[in-house]
């Protein structure tokens, strides 16, 4: 479409932008403003959830609490944390399993195992979750417990289906298992149950019965409120219906409603906000897309929602690059506009003020983006270096084995291997590599950790190497929080890792939030 040319300045400006733009749909301004308000107040909703969790913790600490009540409370805590703190959900569910083995009934042991399976799936441990889930399939329990069983299966196979993203035959298999769970839930649940109504409407959408689905979904939304998790799920399905009708504005509006409901309900594994960011990117609304995708990533990170972080990763580079280009283009446009304005307007001072204000914002944004890029490069460089080091050692070992066998010294080779001389010093070299990587990525890591400790408990480096406690918490900062994984990587026993973690936590100023504070190291600086 040809553009009207006013003066040569605007011709120059237009030449720097794309000549052909996709048709843009009107933005749902009302819904987006409401979503922005929810994002600004997200801390309030998180605090409200924290208060609820604290009340459950207080109940759990009661000395007179019976065994059954303890199991029930732990199950409630695990379910409460599943969508916003997957690691906590896994911890509480494991405690529920342990408690049920001591003084739980068959039903309590079953529900505890079920909630543990649910937590495994939420945390991304799919192999373990599938194994545990299948082991519960043939146990005879009451109707309500069977309903919970199929709800857990529905979430498990939904996550698996979204994770593989139609990249293999497994996607169809997971989808079939998901549908089978839905069919079982429809058969077991009461007809007036809102979740049952939602499942039926979702199946209508999947089968292309959009008109019928719209009626059911709208009626269901009218009965619910944003504080209900089903409300957000319903809004997301309605967005799909409007998208199939070709109404992109309504599609975005209902995505915004679903995303707002996720924030209000403190659901950190929702699809709606990343989908809305992707739509805004397609509409060339790069600043909004950048803001929404980053908020979604921060929420997924806070909740350790690994599946959501993987699914969002596909959009981040494109949105990041588009936003970077928009900032650069915006800066250049302002500079050119200011140059021309000096010849056209007398109010030079006013225009200069706005110009420098925009430049300041652009530089700050570019600095933040550049810092993020350097961090990514550092991760990649250190990873490649570590791989290269161990590749060299691997080939050296192959040459030694080949030389010994070729010369008929197999028995001598076996003796050398049994003596432990081949692996001698490997752990120490590995620790040095790990320490170098951590101190490269976070130069002030030791200083920041010491700020979290009591003054008399602060740690000093010896020979430029991290202490075992610092090395363990370096892995926590890098996202490896499970003690069993850290133990395998560092060749420690699990009990040793637990002991080091507890020892360091007990030396902290704020023991309860020590590990959360470690995870924040380096974030504020970026």
Low-confidence stretches: 1-22, 332-341
Question: How would you spell out the order of helices and strands?
Answer: HHHHHHHHHHHHHHHHHHHHHHHHH
**What is the CA-CA span between the terminal residues?**
41 Å
Q: How many H/I helical runs?
A: 25
Structural class: mainly alpha
Major beta sheet summary: none
What is the strand tally?
Answer: 0
Radius of gyration: 28 Å
Q: Which shape, going by the Cα principal axes?
A: globular
How large is the share of residues in beta strands? under 5%
Helix content: over 70%
Overall pLDDT score: 77
Gist of the model:
The chain has 526 residues and is mainly α. Helices cover 75% and strands 0% of the residues.
Task: Please describe what this structure looks like.
- The chain is an all-alpha fold and 526 residues long.
- Helix content is 75%, strand content 0%.
- It is built from 25 helices and no strands.
- It has helices at 8-15, 29-40, 42-60, 67-81, 86-103, 106-122, 126-135, 143-164, 169-188, 194-206, 210-223, 229-245, 248-264, 272-282, 286-302, 306-312, 316-344, 348-406, 410-419, 426-441, 445-452, 468-477, 483-490, 494-506, 514-519.
- α6 (106-122) runs parallel beside α8, α9 (169-188) runs antiparallel to α10 (194-206) and α11 (210-223) runs antiparallel to α12.
- The two termini are 41 Å apart.
- Mean pLDDT is 77; it is low at 1-22 and 332-341.
Q: Any descriptors?
A:
disordered N terminus; mainly alpha
List the helices and strands and how they pair.
Layout: H1 8-15, H2 29-40, H3 42-60, H4 67-81, H5 86-103, H6 106-122, H7 126-135, H8 143-164, H9 169-188, H10 194-206, H11 210-223, H12 229-245, H13 248-264, H14 272-282, H15 286-302, H16 306-312, H17 316-344, H18 348-406, H19 410-419, H20 426-441, H21 445-452, H22 468-477, H23 483-490, H24 494-506, H25 514-519
